[in-house]
Amino acid sequence: MSRFKTIYCRNDLADLIRQVGILPFFDNRVPGWSVEENIDPGVWFTSDDGPWEWKGPLACEKICAYGKFIRGKAAFVRPDWFAELANYRRGGYVAFDDMDEAGEAPRRDRLLMRYVAAHPGELSKYARRESGVDRGYEAVLTRLEMQTWIINQDFRYSVDRQGRPYGWGNAALIRPEDWLDGFALPDRTPEESFERIVAHLRGLMPDVDEALLRRELK
User: Fold this and answer.
1) Is residue 66 one of the residues assigned to a domain?
2) 51 φ, ψ to 5°?
3) Whole-model pTM?
4) Three-state DSSP class for 57?
5) Looking at the predicted structure, is the pLDDT value of residue 173 above 80?
C-alpha cells in the first residue's frame, strides 16, 4: 500500500524522511508506513543505486539517524524526532552510564558500548571481534539500537580490483551523542515524548488504528 509520494531517487527519500519523521525501511503492521511500500518497484529492485545504497549517505549527511528502531528492524528517523524517540526508549536515563550504575545494563551491552564509545565510527565487523561480545552479538547490537544508544553513522563497502564497491556494506557504529553536535534529550518525560510521536504520526496517517501504531513504536 502506497500512502505517500512515490520515491524515485535519494532526494525523494530524504524529503519523505523529513515529512514523516520516523520511517521504517520495510513494510510492517501499519499499512503504507515504510520505504518499501512507497518506492517505485523499479528503484527497489535495481542493479543501480537504490535505497540500500542511499541509507549510508543519508545518515552521513545527518538527514536522519539510521538503525534498528522499529521492532528490531531498520528505520530512518529525523534528528529532532530521534531525540524524542531516545527520550522515550531510554526510559528516563540520559546516559548509558546512568543505566549501568543502576544495574540495568547487561554485561555484554556494557562491553559493546565501551568499545563503540572508545572507537566512534568503527565498523561493526571489528566491534564484533574486538569488543569481547563473544556470542549473541547481533542481539546485543539490536537491543542497543532499539534503546537508541547506538546508531549507524555510515555503511562502508569492500572494493574489487577495479575499485568497484560490492556486497551489502558494513555498518559504522557510533553513539548519537558523538554523531550529532548538541544532541540532547528533550526536557519532558518519556511518556510525553511517546505521546508527541504518536500524535505526529496520527496526524499524517489519521486512518491508522492507534493501538496498532502504539504497538509498533514500543
Assistant:
1) yes
2) -60, -30
3) 0.94
4) helix
5) yes
